[in-house]
Amino acid sequence: MLETLSDRLQGALAGVRSRGALSEDDIKAAMRQVRLALLEADVNLRVVKQFTAAVGERARGRDVLESLNPGQQVVGIVSDELSELMGGTGRELVFASGGPTVILIAGLQGSGKTTACAKLALALREQRGLDVALAACDLQRPAAVDQLVKVGGQAGATVYEQGTAADPVEVAGWALERAVAEGRDVLIVDTAGRLNVDVALMAELAAIRSRVKPHNVVLVLDAMTGQEAIRIADAFGESAKFDGVILTKLDGDARGGAALSIRASTGKPILYASTGEKLDAFERFHPDRMAQRILGMGDVMTLVEKAERQLDQRQAQEMEGKLRRDEFTLDDFLEQIQQIRKMGPLTSLLGMLPGLSGKQLSQLNLDEREIDRIQAIITSMTPAERANPSMINGSRRRRIANGSGTSVQSVNQLVKQFGQMRKLMRQVASGKMPTLQQLAGGR
Ligand SMILES: Nc1nc2c(ncn2[C@@H]2O[C@H](COP(=O)(O)OP(=O)(O)OP(=O)(O)O)[C@@H](O)[C@H]2O)c(=O)[nH]1
Ligand SMILES: [Mg+2]
């Protein structure tokens, strides 16, 4: 996500980052590069000017230029200002003190509203343990209701719908009554999109709004539309108020102009970022963490939170005990792979680690199918083979290769890699090597 911006900004700062001493001219040159990087990322010109002026002024201060590590300080200032630009600390939805919290989702056609409804439902359910219901109030598109029923179901939410023949305002009101009666914590209202911000769209939204009195009106914006997203947000803001933004398709938007300009242009925070078609490709938007990610400083916080959510504490301890006793089997290995998979696509996880730029990630060419292959091979083994891979002889290898639709070579490779990994783990468990926790804690 935001690879171009990230690469360009890191390039712009590479010069100053490594320098022991900096002159005003060095700063000026770096700011020119930063300005180009932002413009190329499709950030609004006014925003770019303000940003580089603010960074330049702080960076030219005596305390920076005369410090021991001026380069690092300048990078720090850019990171601070980027974070400020995107809204400072992460913002939250407003939650009602009693009765269901109502969230009205609005946006143009195809911006990702319906998907965002389901993603938000899943996130609120999993991360806050809330009981979430969805209201199907897009009655424009014939398949819209079915789509919400499908993705809402996948997210474990209740979907209130009355087909497409009804009136959206009536459906919204009825859904709210049901949510109240059934004691739901949250009601998310999906609405129809239009091609443009037009009178009909605004009228329908206004009617739904006055019927359900939402605690949050959330505008869904497609990041791939760049500055157009800002224009849409401005138009929306003029005729209808909204409280925050869900920015979608950040996976397809390498430039990042929308992410950087929304807050400055509209005054409204980005609440969530959507980074893929899968329901779990969705995260809270933290401007400070995002700034660090863009500058290649990593986002270890989000990674740790993800891991904490997904990795069962008890299971982790069990695993550690097994490692110590040297009882780690291919079954355990498979379980670990599946746990990590639950955290989301590998590339998005690695993107949160410090020091890996978008370009490097794409060069890594992480093949998710490789993991599918490993899963297929392990599940084609008998329990005895998984517990004791050394018994896997030639004929067993052929059987496993056939069963998993792979080759004897792949099976060999996996068994060998597993052996090496076990050896490495023994070393970690016996304290000869730092554990991941120690490495993370040492940062
Ligand atoms: N790559 C990517 N695709 C997304 C993301 N969010 C949504 N999509 C895709 O974008 C398309 C439109 O998403 P919808 O959720 O149906 O959009 P919508 O705003 O409800 O569309 P209408 O109801 O027609 O107005 C679908 O194919 C989604 O899978 C995202 O974050 N990344
Ligand atoms: Mg929709």
Task: Tag the structure with descriptive keywords.
alpha/beta; Rossmann fold; 434 Repressor (Amino-terminal Domain); 3 domains; binds guanosine-5'-triphosphate; binds magnesium ion
In short:
This protein has 443 residues and is an alpha/beta fold.
Structure description:
The protein is of the alpha/beta class and 443 residues long. The chain has three domains: 3-85, Four Helix Bundle (Hemerythrin (Met), subunit A), CATH 1.20.120; 101-296, 3-Layer(aba) Sandwich (Rossmann fold); 303-441, Signal recognition particle, SRP54 subunit, M-domain (434 Repressor (Amino-terminal Domain)), CATH 1.10.260. The chain has 22 helices and eight strands. The relative contact order is 0.10. The chain has helices spanning 3-17, 24-40, 45-59, 62-65, 70-85, 113-128, 144-154, 168-181, 199-212, 227-239, 257-266, 287-294, 300-310, 313-324, 330-342, 346-350, 358-364, 368-379, 383-387, 394-404, 408-429, 436-441; strands at residues 101-107, 132-137, 158-160, 186-191, 216-222, 244-248, 270-274, 282-284. The two termini are 24 Å apart. A hairpin with a 7-residue loop joins strand 7 and strand 8. The structure holds guanosine-5'-triphosphate and magnesium ion. Guanosine-5'-triphosphate (GTP) binds next to helix 6. Residues 113-114, 138, 144, 190 line the site of magnesium ion (MG).
